[in-house]
C-alpha cells in the first residue's frame, strides 16, 4: 500500500469509549486528565460519552450507544480522517453482543494509523507524549492512489 501523510493538529479530535466493566476506569482517567482533555474536541459512544460529560463537565459529543451502532459511527469518522486519537478501554474478559463492531472499530483505527490506547497505562503514555499537545504527521494509506490502481 502506498502511503501519504495526514497532519494531526495540536487540537485533536479524541474518541472515548469503554465497555461496561471499564467505564469507571475510563471515567477516573478522564477526571485525572481533565485539564489535558479540555484542550481537545471530544466524542464518545452514547453511554460512555454521556457519563464522561455528566461526571467531568467536559464537552463530549455522544454518538449512539455502542451496541446500537456507536462503534460503527466512530469507525466511519476514523475512515474519514475526522478522529485523531482513539481511547478505547475494551473488555478482554467479557463478551459483548456487538463484537464484530468492536473489531471493526479497532481495525479501522489500525488501517488509518491513528494513536490508540486500549488500557490506562497506554492512555497515560499518550497523554504525556508530545503528540497530545503538538501537531504531528502520521502516515496513512494513499487512498487516491489505491482507488486509481483499482480502476485502471
Ligand atoms: O459498547 C461500547 C463499545 O464497544 C460502548 O458503548 P457505550 O458507551 O454506549 O456503553
Descriptive overview:
- The structure is a single chain.
- With 152 residues, the protein is an alpha/beta fold.
- It has one domain (13-134): Methylglyoxal synthase-like domain (Rossmann fold, 3-Layer(aba) Sandwich), CATH 3.40.50.1380.
- Helix content is 43%, strand content 21%.
- The protein is built from 7 helices and 7 strands, in the order ββααβαβαβαβαβα.
- The protein has helices at 23-32, 34-37, 46-56, 70-79, 99-111, 120-128, 143-151, and strands at residues 3-8, 13-18, 41-44, 60-62, 85-89, 116-117, 136-141.
- The strands form 2 sheets. It has a 5-stranded parallel beta sheet with strand order 4-3-2-5-6, sandwiched between helices. A two-stranded antiparallel sheet has the order 1-7.
- The longest helix is centred in the C-terminal third of the chain and has 13 residues, at 99-111.
- The two termini are 16 Å apart.
- It binds 1,3-dihydroxyacetonephosphate.
- Residues 17, 19, 45-48, 65-67, 70-71, 96, 102 line the site of 1,3-dihydroxyacetonephosphate.
Short structural summary:
By secondary structure, the protein is of the alpha/beta class. 43% of the residues lie in helices and 21% in strands.
The general outline is globular
CATH second-level architecture:
3-Layer(aba) Sandwich
- Secondary-structure-based class equals alpha/beta
Straight-line N-to-C gap:
16 Å
Strand tally, please? 7
Strand order of the largest sheet: 4-3-2-5-6
Residues in β-strands, percent: 15-25%
What's the name of the CATH homologous superfamily?
Methylglyoxal synthase-like domain
Largest sheet report: 5 strands, parallel
Question: What is the CATH C level class, in words?
Answer: Alpha Beta
